[in-house]
Amino acid sequence: MSRNSSCARLRTVLAAVVAVGLGLASAAQADTITFNASGNQYTTDASIGSLQWNAGGAVAVASIANGAILAPGNTFQLYYQLVLSGLNDPSGNPIGGTPIAGINNTWQITEVASFTERVLTLDASNATATFVLNPVQKADTGVRIYYTDLNAAGAVKANNSTGLGFVPTVGGTLIYSATPTGVPGSTFTDSTKLPSKLDPVVALNQNPGNTNYAGTQTDQGSGSTGFTMATNGTPNPAFFKTGGLALSSFAAIGTMTPFIQVPPALLFNRPTGGTFTANVGATNGVGPGAGPFDFLLQLNGSPQSFAVPEPASLIMALSALGIVPLATWRVRSRVRA
Fold this sequence. Notes:
By secondary structure, the chain is mainly beta. The chain has helices spanning 3-8, 13-18, 311-320, 326-336, and strands at residues 33-35, 46-48, 50-53, 56-65, 68-69, 75-88, 94-95, 107-123, 128-133, 142-149, 172-181, 186-189, 202-203, 217-218, 221-231, 247-257, 268-269, 275-276, 293-299, 302-307. Helices cover 10% and strands 37% of the residues.
């Protein structure tokens, strides 16, 4: 199989890499919350509408086999890692001044995540595919947000090139934990819609001055999706000062290859701990050999909002996903008794 024919089959992978549904989005809209970006160390409180994340890297592990994306029904694991670039007010405007004083200099906030996705449909005739969050998630699944005091001795600043510093070992703390949720509905369509017309194969890494994955090429493409997360436990109250946070969401995350804004990382972080290297192949996701191989792509900067839904709407949304709160189950049990 030629490299070009293999790359032609990769066009729809960009949706597969980030396709999770908007399962709880209708249950609660984004709320204004009080947030202190350094946990009162270096910053003041701010009323925010969202956290603003910088561009970062992602990898779809074992998503390509024999030069083609997996057939419908198959699953793969997505990992991504991001660095906070700022805060947005409820209208989506950047917040400046003391609420972000020292960002990525004296302190930083990072996010690492992973979830299992399943290919739902794949229409090779027009390069359109749909994907869902798999009902059975692997052990690595989760979303973690960390704070790091960069003034702490031995603290490591997050680096998109090396992949280090996203999960702090010194001077850091976990401030938010969540589990991705989703329903069918995510799609991606190749911009050409004509498989016979190949996108040019180009260098994977086009970030100026960076040499990661030198010689590795990639098909070109782009996509976008959004997803919602259910909060685990109580977020760190020194940072998230609004109580009752039940949901967070990305309205839209743009994806693309090649890498331009940031370099492709040499290491990726697991939310559950540890790092790994991507098995990319000579061309992004393609051999030599049958694979399976991993597919690298850039995530464009995106805001993440939070919600404190009304109890009734939250129960209805979670019930639709089969996640009925324990208190509700107990009440029903007593009535039946």
